[in-house]
């Protein structure tokens, strides 16, 4: 399942946690996202395994016709709690860093559901790689129950203290429409029209779960 080179999104990578979280809205968001991916005839890349929100997204997308690829580190695969096979195809990699790299190789865009430290690590890694021009793929945050408000607050605090350039704020766009539809219509930013030292050609998008559910 190779990423498409022409920006016509076909493979969406969803990152989350192997648990369901505290609130039912997390579960509902994962189910709705899996349904949305399948309805748009997209394919899913995810972190492998058969548990939690990751299981819900992959299972719903798979049974509705999407191709699914789970990418899981060997260390996690060897743990008893993660020994269940992934939904669809499974790719076992050497470590967490290779997992992110393979996700980047196979996906055209990324969506983050609520998750844990590993989820946050992937988010920060992928965002920093945009700045380093390693990739130019869009990253969306599904802000269920305001889960990612703290992350955005950190970014604002870092900008205020001059650790992140202020023009980086343009890359963090609050989207109040369906995230999947926004990704499908996504176009690369023309670098010639956005001069500056931090001309990221990707936007990190936030969307409320209510906006997703209202369209399904």
Automatic annotation (TrEMBL):
Function: Cytokinin-activating enzyme working in the direct activation pathway. Phosphoribohydrolase that converts inactive cytokinin nucleotides to the biologically active free-base forms.
InterPro entries the record matches: LOG (IPR005269), LOG_fam (IPR031100)
EC number, as in UniProt: 3.2.2.n1
Keyword Hydrolase set for record: yes
Recorded superkingdom: Eukaryota
Cited Gene3D superfamilies: 3.40.50.450
Family: Belongs to the LOG family.
Annotated GO MF terms: hydrolase activity, hydrolyzing N-glycosyl compounds
Protein's UniProt name: Cytokinin riboside 5'-monophosphate phosphoribohydrolase
UniProtKB keywords: Cytokinin biosynthesis, Hydrolase
Pfam families for this protein: Lysine_decarbox
Swiss-Prot/TrEMBL GO biological process terms: cytokinin biosynthetic process
Substrates-to-products reaction catalysed: 9-ribosyl-trans-zeatin 5'-phosphate + H2O = trans-zeatin + D-ribose 5-phosphate; N(6)-(dimethylallyl)adenosine 5'-phosphate + H2O = N(6)-dimethylallyladenine + D-ribose 5-phosphate
Organism: Citrus x changshan-huyou
GO-annotated cellular components: cytosol; nucleus
